[in-house]
């Protein structure tokens, strides 16, 4: 790791000020990606601005059907929140299967979303739940937020402060982990909204990051059942191929995980 | 056995410091003025070094020196060696290319060292290493051993035309061919043994300390055999004469073979310490470990196994290509020859065997012994083929093995080995009973009802351990003898120190070696200390590998204990005015048999050192040493059964049952033996289901250079193991023990692959059986 200066921000405004004081400063939340990258000398921020201790970015609230999760909320907190388990158990289930206990106690939902690792779990939930990403400057629909591999709509210096979404009528998440990294090789989040509309989002498999699958959405909107997912053709042509899984294998996994997600919903 | 003697489940004495984080490893060592080394490594798999510009690096903060391979050559530091001479079948010696500790002309794998920076801090050393500018002329690379033998491929070493190191054979080719021609059935297979990265928990490290006043060197290093390291660094690398070089291997966090070898880095630390005038420490990070620790396995073989009309084996013919990587590591040449082909008879009565082995250079890191070393390759080839033959012949796998078991001992195989003792049927029966083999069809049907494909597979392994009789290995080309030494020092108060040439890096020697003393003299385990790993304390030793510490290292201790016991009895007899032959040792006292006369152990020891009242002519003190050279290899054997369920939708394999029935001969500490078996099976599961090194075939870049891509076994990949022991004592050593360190890694991969291929009904599957591969193979059968 190269030498770096650590700053603990006390508020969003403080964080922005600290970050803007250097061209090479970076925000850090749980640091589950950034710190290992720095240890391998692949990233060299001059300054790290820690967002985990900003009160306004923490906590979970459910008002009626509207759910709000502060960006600095850890995976562990999401996985164990009684309110969330009542409103949207699928997202608690998702959080409970990210990494290992150490990761779940350090990693945060905001960090995961802002990093937009193509194999991270949360982006699929945001997309399928039609979530709104709340930043210090604006509100962005999840649809417009995830723009590519490790790419988001965030401007320089912009901070994710929370995510909000309407609790779905039904939702489920199933993933097949990469045997080595345990990141998703294919993770599918299915959600049926109160109005009956269905969204299906896939992580880990797309060559351009998280995406919605129109075929699965149509099939499940017509018939919300695992069997309905079985009949869908998943095209392998836009899927990732690597050592652990060919596009063809991932296409199969997308279908199988979709079935399992529906069964779990 | 008592509560602390031979056969007792004594908790490991060393675990307290390990579990409390108080072990003292090489990287924990710190000396005044110590500086840090960082290596500049080749990013190319094959290239000529055009120039090395150190000017920017030399001016960086904290930098003490930037050293290169040319300087090392000028200082007379020798080439790294391979210590076992193999001759090709045409009589020519193996073709060994030069391996420089720091390359000065050509780099041959990604990670080859080209320069080293010494600086005040590790961070400064790494910063400066990045500032060294090396210009390369990049050459084409080849990473696959089969391809490297083809015409027109990149050539690694001028000494080895066609990248061929040796073309070696063993056995009777004519008799084997004749038997195959006359056979009622021949099973043919292509067998690939995947390449593995050893991944000990503690990465390699070295600390070189040069004392200019004494012209003396001290080397702390992560070694399984510090005396061999000293010998090789003195005799071949010209670092320093033995009396001017102390090598210390303190606590070492796992080796699995990868820490047998003498690597460039420890030589460089010693040399750089003299060059720069400061102690120099280097500690590998995990990426460097993947890139530069010797890998294991990487064989491609074809096999023909012939049977007569009664399903009796008549011949085995094997052709193997072994990937050696870019350089010949210390014991690399012996692994696919005398540690592999000599075990191809397995547990079976083969009248004829012939094996041909070609060793090949490629642009990958060196390949050498890794837990099992040759024997997993032999067992995998044999047991996958035997299982396939059973399927082809329509015979149950157990029955086909039973028909062909060797049943009388000693047994001379067609490939050198003379098996001394064993009962293969006993382990087979124990394993089948423990696994409820008979109940499998019902379990398979139940799983099918859940949509799961259930399979069962077995493997009957044998290995040669207790390495090894010195004269025998010498005649086969070994550069060293493979005896072991021990010294037993009884202190004046009766406490005991055992000095051993065996090195403990996870094996629990501090407990098991002490149990021998507790058993013999009835002294408490806590009053026995085991000293190892320091060439200034232990005179000489050959180290720990090849499951040899018990069969060879402990046998040396037993010989020394014999001598101590003899002298102790003489002293006690003198003190009690009794006949030496009437003295017995019981409960920590020396007694005159049949009387109430007795001298406590400590009192006898005190008498030895006060020397006020010793038998006439006896030297004071109580300290004896011994060297033990084994008469034969030992032959642990057993039967492993794996039962799996494959999810056909994802290809994910779950191991639902794993049974190990092993014959290790007599056992000193069953708990430690079981731990060794558990660890070995975990590594075997890693090989069979999870682990595989991948290089990019064009660029030679290592694709599996971190745990993001290299799948190490985790707790949830492993089932609970059912372990049992069948004991036929080894007749060739005083304790009757055979060794247990490698069995788990040897016996488990074929059992698992036999089970998975049974489950999916497709035998065309290579290790590691990843979900993707199993899914594809299962689908191929379903269609």
UniProtKB/TrEMBL annotation, chain A:
Transmembrane segments: none annotated. It comes from Shinella curvata. InterPro entries: CO_DH_flav_C (IPR005107), CO_DH_flav_C_dom_sf (IPR036683), Diverse_Substr_Oxidored (IPR051312), FAD-bd_PCMH (IPR016166), FAD-bd_PCMH-like_sf (IPR036318), FAD-bd_PCMH_sub1 (IPR016167), FAD-bd_PCMH_sub2 (IPR016169), Mopterin_DH_FAD-bd (IPR002346). Keywords: FAD, Flavoprotein, Oxidoreductase. This is Xanthine dehydrogenase family protein subunit M. Gene3D superfamilies: 3.30.465.10, CO dehydrogenase flavoprotein, C-terminal domain (3.30.390.50), Uridine Diphospho-n-acetylenolpyruvylglucosamine Reductase, domain 2 (3.30.43.10). It comes from the Bacteria. SMART domains: CO_deh_flav_C. The lineage of its organism: Bacteria, Pseudomonadati, Pseudomonadota, Alphaproteobacteria, Hyphomicrobiales. It holds the Pfam family FAD_binding_5. Residues 1-170 form the FAD-binding PCMH-type domain.
Automatic annotation (TrEMBL), chain B:
This is Xanthine dehydrogenase family protein molybdopterin-binding subunit. InterPro entries: Ald_Oxase/Xan_DH_a/b (IPR000674), Ald_Oxase/Xan_DH_a/b_sf (IPR036856), Ald_Oxase/xanthine_DH-like (IPR016208), AldOxase/xan_DH_MoCoBD1 (IPR008274), AldOxase/xan_DH_MoCoBD2 (IPR046867), AldOxase/xan_DH_Mopterin-bd_sf (IPR037165). Coiled coil: none annotated. SMART domains: Ald_Xan_dh_C. Keywords: Molybdenum, Oxidoreductase. The keyword Nucleotidyltransferase does not apply. The keyword Secreted does not apply. It comes from Shinella curvata. Residues 20-140 form the Aldehyde oxidase/xanthine dehydrogenase a/b hammerhead domain. It comes from the Bacteria.
């Amino acid at each position: 790791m190269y030498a770096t200066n650590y700053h603990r921000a006390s508020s969003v405004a403080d964080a922005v000020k600290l970050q803007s004081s250097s061209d090479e400063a970076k925000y850090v939340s749980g640091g589950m990606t950034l710190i290992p990258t720095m240890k391998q000398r692949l990233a060299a921020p001059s300054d790290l601005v820690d967002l985990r201790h900003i009160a306004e970015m923490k906590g979970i609230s459910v008002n009626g059907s509207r759910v709000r999760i502060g960006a600095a909320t850890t995976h562990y907190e999401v996985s164990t929140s009684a309110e969330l388990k009542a409103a949207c158990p699928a997202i608690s289930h998702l959080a409970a299967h990210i990494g290992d206990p150490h990761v779940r106690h350090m990693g945060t939902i905001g960090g995961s979303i802002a990093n937009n690792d193509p194999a991270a779990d949360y982006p699929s939930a945001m997309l399928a739940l039609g979530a709104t990403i709340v930043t210090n400057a604006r509100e962005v629909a999840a649809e417009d937020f995830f723009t590519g591999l490790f790419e988001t709509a965030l401007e320089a210096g912009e901070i994710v402060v929370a995510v909000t979404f309407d609790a779905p009528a039904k939702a489920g998440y199933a993933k097949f982990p990469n045997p080595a990294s345990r990141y998703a090789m294919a993770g599918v989040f299915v959600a049926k909204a109160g109005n009956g509309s269905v969204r299906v989002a896939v992580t880990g498999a797309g060559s351009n990051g998280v995406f919605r699958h129109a075929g699965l959405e149509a099939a499940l909107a017509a018939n919300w059942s695992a069997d309905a997912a079985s009949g869908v053709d998943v095209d392998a042509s836009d899927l990732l191929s690597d050592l652990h899984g060919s596009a063809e294998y991932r296409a199969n996994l997308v279908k199988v995980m979709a079935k399992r997600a529906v069964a779990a919903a | 056995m008592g509560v602390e003697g031979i056969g007792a489940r004594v908790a490991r004495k060393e675990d307290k410091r390990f579990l409390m984080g108080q072990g003292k490893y090489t990287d924990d060592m710190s000396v005044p003025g110590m500086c840090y080394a960082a290596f500049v490594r080749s990013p190319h798999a094959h290239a000529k070094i055009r120039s090395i510009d150190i000017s920017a690096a030399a001016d960086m903060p904290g930098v003490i020196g930037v050293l290169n391979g040319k300087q090392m050559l000028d200082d007379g530091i020798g080439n790294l060696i391979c210590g076992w001479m193999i001759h090709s079948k045409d009589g020519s010696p193996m073709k060994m290319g030069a391996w420089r500790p720091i390359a000065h002309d050509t780099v041959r794998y990604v990670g080859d060292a080209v320069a080293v920076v010494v600086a005040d801090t590790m961070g400064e050393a790494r910063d400066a290493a990045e500032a060294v500018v090396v210009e390369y002329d990049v050459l084409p690379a080849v990473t696959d051993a089969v391809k490297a033998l083809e015409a027109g491929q990149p050539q690694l070493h001028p000494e080895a035309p066609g990248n061929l190191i040796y073309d070696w054979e063993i056995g009777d080719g004519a008799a084997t061919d004749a038997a195959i021609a006359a056979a009622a059935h021949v099973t043919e297979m292509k067998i690939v043994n995947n390449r593995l990265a050893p991944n000990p928990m503690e990465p390699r490290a070295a600390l070189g300390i040069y004392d200019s006043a004494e012209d003396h060197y001290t080397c702390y290093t992560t070694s399984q055999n510090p005396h061999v390291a000293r010998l090789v660094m003195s005799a071949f690398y010209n670092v320093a004469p033995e009396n001017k070089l102390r090598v210390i291997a303190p606590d070492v966090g796992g080796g699995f073979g990868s820490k047998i070898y003498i690597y460039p880095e420890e030589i460089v630390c010693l040399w750089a310490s003299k060059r720069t005038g400061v102690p120099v420490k280097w500690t590998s990070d995990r990426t460097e470990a993947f890139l530069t620790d010797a890998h294991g396995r990487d064989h491609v073989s074809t096999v023909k196994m012939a049977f007569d009309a009664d399903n009796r084996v008549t011949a085995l013919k094997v052709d193997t290509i072994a990937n050696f990587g870019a350089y010949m590591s210390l014991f690399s040449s012996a692994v696919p020859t005398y540690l592999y082909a000599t075990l191809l008879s397995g547990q079976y009565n083969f009248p004829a065997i012939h094996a041909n082995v070609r060793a090949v250079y490629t642009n990958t890191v060196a390949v050498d012994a890794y837990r099992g070393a040759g024997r997993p390759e032999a067992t995998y080839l044999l047991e996958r083929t035997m299982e396939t033959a059973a399927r082809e012949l329509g015979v149950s796998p157990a029955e086909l093995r039973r028909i062909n078991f060797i049943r009388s001992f000693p047994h001379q195989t067609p490939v050198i080995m003379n098996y001394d003792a064993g009962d293969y049927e006993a382990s087979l029966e124990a394993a089948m009973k423990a696994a409820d083999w008979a109940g499998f069809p019902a379990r398979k049907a139940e799983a099918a009802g859940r949509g799961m494909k259930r399979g069962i597979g077995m493997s009957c392994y044998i290995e040669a351990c207790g390495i090894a009789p010195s004269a025998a290995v010498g005649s086969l080309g070994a550069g060293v003898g493979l005896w072991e030494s021990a010294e037993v020092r009884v202190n004046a108060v009766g406490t005991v120190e055992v000095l051993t040439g065996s090195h403990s890096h996870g094996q629990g020697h501090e407990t098991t070696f002490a149990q021998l003393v507790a058993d013999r003299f009835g002294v408490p385990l806590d009053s026995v200390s085991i000293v190892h790993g320091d060439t200034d304390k232990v005179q000489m030793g050959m180290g720990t590998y090849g499951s040899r510490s018990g069969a060879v290292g402990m046998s040396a201790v037993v010989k020394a204990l014999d001598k101590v016991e003899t002298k102790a009895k003489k002293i006690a007899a003198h003190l009690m005015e009794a006949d030496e032959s009437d003295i017995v040792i019981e409960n920590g006292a020396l007694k005159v048999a049949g009387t109430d006369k007795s001298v406590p152990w400590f009192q006898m020891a005190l008498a030895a050192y006060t020397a006020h009242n010793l038998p006439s002519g006896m030297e004071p003190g109580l300290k004896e040493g011994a060297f033990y050279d084994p008469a034969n290899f030992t032959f642990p054997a057993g039967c492993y059964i794996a039962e799996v369920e494959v999810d056909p939708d994802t290809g994910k394999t779950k191991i639902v049952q794993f049974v190990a029935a092993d014959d290790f001969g007599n056992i000193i500490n069953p708990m430690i033996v079981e731990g060794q078996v558990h660890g070995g099976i975990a590594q075997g599961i890693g090989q069979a289901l999870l682990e595989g090194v991948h290089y990019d075939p064009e660029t030679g870049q290592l694709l599996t250079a971190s745990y993001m891509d290299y799948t190490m076994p985790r707790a949830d990949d492993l089932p609970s193991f059912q372990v049992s022991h069948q004991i036929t004592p080894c007749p060739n050593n005083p304790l009757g023990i055979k060794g247990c360190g490698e069995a788990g890694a040897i016996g488990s991969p074929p059992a698992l692959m036999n089970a998975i291929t049974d489950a999916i009904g497709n035998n065309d599957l290579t290790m590691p059986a990843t979900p993707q591969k199993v899914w594809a193979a299962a689908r191929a059968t379903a269609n």
